[in-house]
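Good morning,

Both structures are done.
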Amino acid sequence: MREVDALDGLCGRVCDRSGVHYKVLNRCKGPAVWGLRAQIDRGLYKENMQKEILNTPLLTVREASVEDLLLTEPEPGCPGKCKVTGVVLGDGSTVCAGSVILTTGTFLRGMIHIGLEMHPAGRLGDQPAIGLAHTLEKLGFAVGRLKTGTPPRLAKDTIDFSGLEERAADNPPVPFSFLSEAVWIKPEDQLSCYLTRTNLKAQQIIRDNLHLNSHVRETTRGPRYCPSLESKVLRFPDREHQVWLEPEGLESNVIYPQGMSMTLPAELQEQVIKSVPGLEKAKMLQPGYGVQYDFLDPRQLTASLESRLVQHLFFAGQINGTTGYEEAAAQGVIAGINACLRVQGKPPFTVSRTEGYVGVLIDDLTTLGTSEPYRMFTSRVEFRMSLRPDNADTRLTHRGFEEAGCVSQQRYEQAVKMRAALEDGIATLKSLQFSISKWSQLLPGVPLSSSRRSPVSAFDILQYQDANMEILAKAIPEPLGKLAQWRELAERLKIEAVYEWCVVNQQQEIEEVRHDEALELPDDLDYFAIDASLSAEVREKLDANRPQTIGAVSRIPGITPAAIVNLLRFVKTNHRKMEKLKAVPRSGKMYSDKTTSQRQISAEFSEEETKFVKTPL
């Protein structure tokens, strides 16, 4: 969201004017993995977004279904079998265009499932895009099928919140947009979310009625990271599953039970709902449902999100196999920028993996493809220590203004001012150098390490957990007083100081993997049992592919850079253990070189301390 905002995308600013609950996730961890989150008032968001769109100069909005594409001969010397010149609407009229962007969401041959019932729709009450799907198939695009779902909606006034865990919003709330000094709502007026959990009764109702649910069958891949309740019951039996009760608006009586996506028949959904604590008397306003839809293999796109088959045709969002949240918004901004540049005959605007999350997202999609709805995580990013939410403007706003022309003058000037202030602030902090004993006198409330070599700069001191710009400014009012007065600058200087050494270490990790690409992996490596910090998804992919070298691991779709580093270190550490074992006289337990498995060796030395820090995925 911060990167979309840095390129002058609308959603961050509109969220700051429409939210009812703002929360920064992962606060207990470092700023590199903080996640800005908000509950949005649906009515307010729609109103504010439409106001922005309809008041945009030179923009014409026309509501209609697109059934076909207008095509002509391709431009010579460029890849593609044809060129798009516009679209055909449902009423037969045409709209001519220099570039076309398709953002079909779940509407491309969408089919809704509730129990065993199915009917064509991209969303409840809205017709799917059938003609367009046929056109894309005839053009030769590789088409796949994905599925997703939505939970039932509940009446707020029928829920008993008294025994549930309340989760209050942040005070003060953190805005999404770099242009927003604060969000629209007062901290005390924010609405709370509530946590409840399913139980064995809910699980039994689901298991007894799986035969009445066609959507849950694994014929079409669904989302791994926000699966249906039925999928969770099947994959993780005999567990409680979290259900977050989220308000849909300040004046709304609708509650969205996050984590309760279901596609059982409506009457059975009501039984599951009433089995959950706090929901015993809850009224279901709308049943949950699943939707299956077409998507196109994103490997058919360039890094600018232009189709390789049809010139001037761009794709963004769920049509490329992602989820429909920030991932879709990020693609929409990049596709919109490049569709415009294509018409103007200018070079495409692309973001590399080293520059932003949006670069990692698009690179993963266009080079590796996806077989399930793709979600963006910090663990997918090689340089996540430097690609933080706080510095998205310094990474992207200047490029957006100078290369893409998508950034307003106001935003550009603000970003220039912040960048200059950061550079000057860091230089000032690094120029203030004293011995560690002198710093201890100046900052008696900050525990400092006496083992550090002198002299130590103020920037180095800022790396300590208990140090901040306010404390430093009190000790050295001149020249640090002005830096501390600008709150956002002071916070960003602290983050820059904390992550300076992390960025260096991360680069060393990347070099470590490159150096050991040829390192062979044991044939009998049990990926589900090894003591390495690997997610369940990574372990599944490693076990299915059985790569022979570390280099081969890096080429498996969906394997994160952090996972490669952790696996490399595990293998190298265990290799040293095996060498140590061979050097010890074999009394007591006997091992055969041919039969001793990596799992046995790992178990034998399970109590030995490893000399590296695991990165949780």
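Second structure follows.
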Amino acid sequence: MVTAHALGSFPLDVVSGVGARRSVKVARARHGRASLREQSCMLPQSNLTSLARAQLIRSYLGSQRSRGCSRASTVVRAQAAQKYDYDLVIVGAGVGGHGAAMHAVESGLKVAVIEGHDIGGTCVNRGCVPSKALLAASGRVRDMKNAHHLKSIGITVSNVEFERQPIADHANQLAAGIQQNLKRSLEGLGVDILIGAAKLTAPHTIKYNLPGRVDVGGEVTAKDIMLATGSVPFVPPGIPIDGKTVFTSDHALKLDWIPKWIAIIGSGYIGLEFSDVYTALGSEVTFIEAMDKLMPGFDGEIAKMAQRVLVNPRHIDWHTGVLATKVTPGVPGVKPVLIELTDVKTKEKVDSLEVDACLVATGRAPYTHGLNLGALGVETDRRGFVPVNEKMQVLDTKGKTVPHLYCIGDANGKYMLAHAASAQGISAVENMCGREHVLDHSTVPAACFTHPEVSFVGATEEQARETAQKKGYGSKVAVVKTSFKANTKALAEKESDGMAKMIYRKDTGEILGVHIFGLHAADLIHEASNAMATHQRVQDIKFNVHSHPTLSEVLDELFKQGHLEKMDRPDAKPAVAQKMPQQARI
């Protein structure tokens, strides 16, 4: 099976004209297609037009189609092609739908996507992508204004200034560019892009249209249908959104203005990232958190350290254990926003705030309204999520699978992250092609892109110990930690605030969770998540070799601290590195 990484790099690189020759060689190495390399040699990168790139991809994919789905599945698909317009129709062209479409085309399927808003979905247009642009720009401002840090490495800077609009433009332009890249990649792969809001009308059948437009829309049929409609910001009752002084992350990403004092409802990763942006640009921040502590979803020890670095030294205060039960919008620069705080336990009003603005960062809700799921005997749960099994197959009201209907990403609520949606989409395609596949969500990494970053995969220490007690191996859970202060690269950067910890079973070596807070933590986590996904154990990964001096040595130090009960015996023998067969090397 081709991995998500391979599928993501080959078509996008070729279509965009970046690293085309490299991608072709990688594809040849993976699939043994000498003809593909010959084609790449005939098309120098500098002269590789968009049309030529698309033709190259189609040539490659055409040669692979018979190798995609299983032989039996291919016969069924050939018969189905005479009955349906497409093998697969995907409702939603966000990161999840895009990843699924690429994998489906690589597997030999005829694919269409239906999109009622913007190609790229929430992540590209109103989430991951523009927020990282704001974090990048505001992070530079924070660094340049940190005179003490700069002076420690011999740099003196004065009169650091920034302009709000160019920072906002950077975010908007990045989102627009990525959106066009995704659209071109789908078109280059031969995926039909249908514009409109989709509605299920019968098994295998979808109608789509745009309100008020008679020239857009139609009806299509497909062997399989995949729902990938994503999510929207969740706004608690009693909070009116005016988009100016009381707003969600959708509005905040536009950076229309920078309030002097902003309240952020919720201290999860969305709230934390925006607190990073706003404080860097000069705002004061007040967190309003319903739980008894900040960052309640993070590992407790990591959250405490993150609070010491990301919250305490900055212009941030907080109220925990309270709800914002009433919010009254104001007028920018004229009238403040009024917020009433109510104790979660006693339900009594305990405080009120007057701030310049209020960002509602209380999570996200599935965007499943209007799909007409009832036509296929499906109902969402009380929160609006579409019920699915581990293979991403949709379940009806009786708990039985609905044939040929799948749902991925935020719409099913299993793990509301863009890369998780893409992985689910790939898994669903594998299953519809007759190759049974189940995604292990406990091995999917997550990150918060503050300065410094937070990342994690698997269980927190609290979760791991609770599970161990219930399953009878409580004494077998072990924890090891290391500090960024022991890392040469972090010390060279004068950014050594941070730690990493690993939770594992000392009787089996199974890795239960890894958590990192520190410089480039979001990049470092993948060695751990991929080790967990491939079922490597502590006794396996501790022999990995890391380049020196690099931040990756934080994990090197962490892994080497892991000790198993059996390995602690005097007669225990260390693991021996396995020699890779020559023919398996690339």
